Amino acid sequence: MRRKSARFFEMKRRRAPIAVLTAYDAPTAKAEADAGVDAILVGDSVGVTMLGYASERAVTLADMRHHIGAVRRGAPDAVIIGDLPYLTYETPLEAVASSRLLIEAGADIVKFEGFRADLVEALAAESIEVCCHLGLEPQTHEQKRIKGRQAEDAARLVRDAIALDKAGMAMLVLELIPEEVAGRVTQSVHAPTIGIGAGRLTDGQVLVITDVLGFSEKNFRHNRRYEEFGRLVRAAAKAYVRDVHEKTFPGEDNIVHMDKDQLAGF
Ligand code: KIV
Ligand code: NA
């Protein structure tokens, strides 16, 4: 079977930017697929953006399966990348077992954080396509600060990426690193790189859909906020509550009546 990441390698070769968005539910996944997104990431960001957890670390394999399944049902033909949650890929055996659970739920490609070439090899040996994730690694880095600013850290990042590439990664997410570092990594690996807060020189971009929609109060420098969804939801809910309280909803156009002849015998 053709690898799901093959198209992204071709896009890298053609220098055609790859557009990735996160999604966590069926209708959003469908909207993104209709919009022509190249891949959908079901990130463990779901924990904070959708489930009200304080950290990505609270996300479980069951959570990921639940949301990957929803995204797959909403976007049957999309390429879906699924995050392996914190502490579910300690050993190669565990990484393979956890990945199988995500794939069974609907993921095409699994993603994990950190420099673990042993895991990439183990997964590749099982024909599981792997997306690596370097730079800011939210599962282990408590502080959401930019990584790879110092020349020494930047050089290590490039070295790590090259080793993961040799081990057989299919994609690489680069999070919150200087543009120059992301550019160097992108030139140094065969696999397509997807940046978030990593500048313009990666092979693609990924953003978190709730940030794009403006669901949260907080904005980030790396994000472009295309809508004010939080404000929209509040305004719609407020109008609905008002209409119910004032008895203007349901209106005549929202209801059904019995037929006259039936009503006579009722
Ligand atoms: O979980 C997530 O949404 C991610 C992206 C920020 C790359 O890993
Ligand atoms: Na993630």
From TrEMBL:
Q: What is this protein called?
A: 3-methyl-2-oxobutanoate hydroxymethyltransferase
**GO cellular component terms attached to this protein's record:** cytoplasm
Q: How does it assemble?
A: Homodecamer; pentamer of dimers.
Q: Name one GO biological process term.
A: methylation
Cofactor remark: Binds 1 Mg(2+) ion per subunit.
Similarity field = Belongs to the PanB family.
What cofactor(s) does the depicted protein rely on? Mg(2+)
Keyword check for Magnesium, yes or no: yes
Q: Where does Mg(2+) bind?
A: D44, D83, E113
